[in-house]
Amino acid sequence: MDPSDRPRRSVLDAPTLVLNRSWVPIHVTIVRRAVGMICRGIASVVDPGSLSLQDFDAWASLRGEPGRHSIRTATRWLPVPEIVQLAQYDRVPSFEAPFTRASLFRRDDHRCQYCGTRPPHSQLTIDHVVPRSRGGRTSWDNCVVACVRCNARKGDRLPGTAGLRLMRNPRAPRWTPHLHVRAADWPGSWNQFLGDRHGQGFATGT
Ligand SMILES: [Zn+2]
């Protein structure tokens, strides 16, 4: 198929940043859904320049310039809502991070969870706190980063039996919030809310 035959991505499918009532980015939706939220009074449009909030009536009275930053209605053009703010929502939702080797190293700060050292990566291993041979699972709450020395010392035993003590109880980290949008696709108006997270995929560990 010739690329020029493909349907162009509608402006209604472009991303809209969703802020909570405290101006914290919590989500990315698409323009089509954002417009639905504005119509129902769930969200207001944020003017990226003045940061004033526009409810549906105020937004619908604006006039956009024809082009890719506007939505065409039956009678005229409306500016695309690039940022909306939820009227009621205060919280910051969190999402459980996928269990991967890289995420585990990040959770444990690349540090042996028994002796606290940070040797080179080649000297770090993943230890099952309850050994697999005793039914220990490969999961956030049973795996920790351990240096080769501590891991060898522990062997097939529980930490206490081996005279080792965990620095903290392992548990799943929460990544808050997580936006599945490439930085290259963000409108410039988002930068003031995303700050130094620009280019980092906007995932912050806690
Ligand atoms: Zn160690």
Instruction: Report low-confidence residues grouped into runs of 5 or more.
Output: 1-6, 198-206
Number of strands: 12
Would you list the SSEs in sequence order as H and E?
Answer: EEHEEHEEEEHEEHEHE
Q: What form results from the Cα inertia axes? A: elongated
Counted by DSSP, the helix tally is 5
Description:
Helix content is about 15%, strand content about 25%. It has 5 helices and 12 strands. It has 2 domains: about 120 residues, no CATH class; about 55 residues, Orthogonal Bundle (DNA Binding (I), subunit A). A hairpin with a 6-residue loop joins strand 3 and strand 4. By secondary structure, the chain is of the alpha+beta class. It is elongated, with a radius of gyration of 24 Å. The strands form 4 sheets. The chain has a 5-stranded mixed β-sheet. A 3-stranded antiparallel β-sheet has the order 8-11-12, with no helix packed on it. Strands 5-6 form a two-stranded antiparallel ribbon. Zinc ion binds next to strand 10 and helix 4.
